[in-house]
Amino acid sequence: MNVSELEEIERDYVRWYPARITAMDPAAAWSRPTMGLYAHIPYCAHRCHFCKYKVKVGDDLHDEMDVFLDSLENEIRTVRQRGQVAGRPLDVVFIGGGTPSLLAPRQLRRLLDGITSSFELTDDCEFSMEWSPASLSSEKLRLFRAAGGNRLSIGVQSFNDEVLKEIGRDHTAAEAREALRLAHEAGFDNINLDLIYRLPGQSVEDVRRSVRDALACDPAHVSFYPLWIREHTVLWSRLQKGELEIPGEDVEQEMFEAAREIFTEHGYEHYNVFDFVRRTTPRCRYTELQWEDGEWVGVGPSAVTYIDGRHTINAYSIGDYIERARTTGAATAAGSVLDLPARMRRTMMFGLRMNPFDTDRFRRQYGVDVDTVFGPELTLLAESGLITREGRLLRLTAEGIRKVNNIGKLFYEAPEDRQSLGLSRRGLPILEVDR
After folding, report:
1. Which domains are seen in the chain, by residue range?
2. How far is the C-alpha of 320 from the C-alpha of 316, rounded, in Å?
3. What average pLDDT does the segment 11-16 reach?
4. pLDDT mean over 254-265
5. What residue stretches are annotated with the Radical SAM core domain (predicted)?
6. d(CA 397, CA 409)
7. Contact between 17 and 73 (Cβ < 8 Å)
8. Which of 71-85, 182-196, 212-226, 251-265 is predicted least confidently?
9. In angstroms, rounded to a whole number, what is the distance separating the alpha carbons of residues 13 and 403?
10. Is residue 59's pLDDT more than 60?
11. Cα–Cα distance, 76 to 111 (Å, whole number)
12. Quick one: angle between helices 318-328 and 62-81, nearest 10?
């Protein structure tokens, strides 16, 4: 990547590295203990208009969910028996999706029991789960809290009903406020709220109102994402037909700056490209696990694992996952083993998302100064106005935040690397393209 490639905002979201993967034997994916667990629940009541992810949608999926949970439990049993995992406690658990809160109470209890009976959780384990306002209930919150759950992530996206309708959400702003009220009432203080900006029909003032409305609900944490338009989604189709307009890049930047100003005024720290946390609340440990070279096991379809330099992905197809996990307990379908240079590249492309990136961490991990390995890249980023340097600390500028995916790709080993969501049944990479 050269200077010219840093001029236009890259929308192909960099989620992991190395980008190129090949088929991998599940046994080769494991080499030492893990510290985190991610469980993926691939079901939703319906598909949002911006969603391209592999989920199954429908009004009544509970029979299939029972079959899915059979397979998930079998995979968890297999994972816990591996020598590298057995007896090692977890200090992070994250249940994501999909919409995990779509599970019926008995199914949610079954999932939680399967995790807590299989693994030892540390006393201060951050135990998170994603929730939709449409399927959150007091009963499910009580079940989660009784199992040790202590952090919620609620997908609100906007507090403007017209915008919510435009993007295909199945809740209203009033229902989102009620969900947050119930969460506080159930005793949860560590609540994350998801917001999206750059939405169709959204103005800068709409964003300001949504952020203020969000903070009025007293979340500990807010994840604030720009909209990416992915191919073959409802929004993409409407955009191709000229039926839809989304804010331009200048307005997008104005939206972000307006929101960041409000977050700062209300005592929130901007510690990650997309994340703001109340200064009196610890940062999200799961976020730090992902972007600061933590290790975790992923269970469920398309779940990612990163252990001892091994990056692996479970079967992408839900049906394929269910069959693999049911029959063998192992669902790993693809992955790669990182050599030392690749690990260093991964540390940079993900570490720079954190605010700030401490170059001393790089030295402690690898025994060499970061400038010795990536001096030219860091010089290019500084000269392009994408990072600043304060002693050992590197920080993204406002423009660097907008171009975080460009920056990630600057550290790719080869320009032709393409990120893949996994391998299809034919063994071909499944590519995610952002427009």
Report:
1. 1-18+340-435 (1.10.10.920), 21-291 (3.20.20.70)
2. 7
3. 77
4. 97
5. 29-269
6. 17
7. no
8. 71-85
9. 10
10. yes
11. 10
12. 50
Cis omega (within 30 of 0) for bond into 98: yes
Nearest Cα residue to 135 out of 233, 38, 235, 46: 46
Q: How far is CA 8 from CA 230, 231, 255, 369, in A?
A: 17, 19, 18, 30
CA distance 375 to 370: 7
Q: How many CB atoms lie within 10 A of CB 247?
A: 22
On whether the CB atoms of residues 57 and 44 are closer than 8 A, the answer is yes
417 sits in the region (left: phi over 0; alpha: psi -120 to 50; else beta) called beta
**What single DSSP character describes residue 16?**
S
Bridge partners of 305, per DSSP, are: 312
- pLDDT at residue 25, as a whole number: 57
Q: How are strands ordered across the β-sheet holding 36-41?
A: 268-272, 275-278, 221-226, 190-197, 151-157, 121-131, 90-97, 36-41, 297-299
30 pLDDT exceeds 50?
no
On average, the pLDDT of the chain sits at 90
Q: What is the rounded CA–CA span in Å between residue 229 and residue 119?
A: 38
Residue 131, token pair as written in the block = 């929730």
10 secondary structure, DSSP code = P
Are the C-beta atoms of residues 18 and 413 closer than 8 Å to each other? yes
d(CA 123, CA 125): 6
Going edge to edge, which strands form the sheet with 387-390? 357-358, 393-396, 387-390
- In this structure, what token pair is assigned to residue 409? 């790709």
Half-sphere exposure of 164 (CA within 13 A, CB side): 20
State how beta strands 310-314 and 357-358 pair: unpaired
Segment 203-232, tens digit of pLDDT: 999 999 999 999 999 999 999 999 988 888
Q: Which is nearest to 225 in space by CA: 6, 4, 2, 13? A: 13
* Residue 34 in this model has a pLDDT that exceeds 80: no
Query: What is the DSSP annotation of 262-283?
Result: HHHHTTEEEEETTEEEETTSPP
- CA distances, 94 to each of 37, 304, 419 (Å): 6, 12, 23
pLDDT in tens, 351-376: 999 999 999 999 999 999 999 999 99
